[in-house]
Amino acid sequence: xxxxxxxxxxxxxxxxxxxxxxxxxxxxxxxxxxxxxxxxxxxxxxxxxxxxxxxxxxxxxxxxxxxxxxxxxxxxxxxxxxxxxxxxxxxxxxxxxxxxxxxxxxxxx
Length: 109
What we know:
Elements: H1 31-34, E1 45-47, H2 48-55, H3 59-68, E2 75-77, E3 80-84, H4 85-93
Antiparallel strand pairs: 1-3, 2-3
């Protein structure tokens, strides 16, 4: 009497990752090569990574602010969004200035 075989899987078997011993030296990564290239400071446009780093917001937050009209809208340059540097800088200067308590007489700085 024949035994039933399991049907073959359509998927390839997973490869096992090669384990690295704890005492092995890992290659160092040069972080300068990983960062986005910095455009010249006098450029007219700012790309998304530069804008996000400057305004310290996430893109979903920035997207919501653009839709509400609270942040300058992006321009389309080819297939990627860019912002005018002057508009972003004007938005930053329009932010409210933080108010501090006045110094009292006798307080040391």
